[in-house]
Amino acid sequence: MSLSLRDQLLKAGLVNQKQVSQTNKAQKKQKRMEHKGQVEVDDTQQRLAKEAMAEKARKDQELNRAVQEKAEQKARAAQVKQLIEATRLPKLTTEDYFNFVDDKKVKRIAVNALMRSKLSNGALAIVAHGGGYEVVPRESALRIQERDPHRILLLNTHVEEADEADDPYAAYKIPDDLMW
Question: Model-level pTM?
């Protein structure tokens, strides 16, 4: 069993029994005075330790919040990627292109006539994915927009096709060879 520091000093001959008893008496007197409230207790060490623990807890909390936020961003990115890959339309190899703007640059994507009309009326949208562009349905684009609005490059306002009966210009036919 290990000896206390006092016993070790006594055994080594560095202090005598009289010095030990004086030290014990002084410690008991100090405790009695603190208990009665006659002497102020020096609690600077305890206060500094509590402040350091509070600061450490605050830093740990900030770090945990940053890690959790990073994990949430990663999860949202994975959800967006999964939505795009599950709902994207197949790529076409046609000579007909649809032009759109991406980061102040005009880009183009191959489309057919049906895709062009659906992109124009808002039934389809263009999203950025993996350094390229994909065409997805409107419902998927809205879900992607909730998670990452920067991925949506073109999403026109949805326009329902008007009935032929309500159209005042139904009697006027547009020529097939007219290009806009």
Answer: 0.57
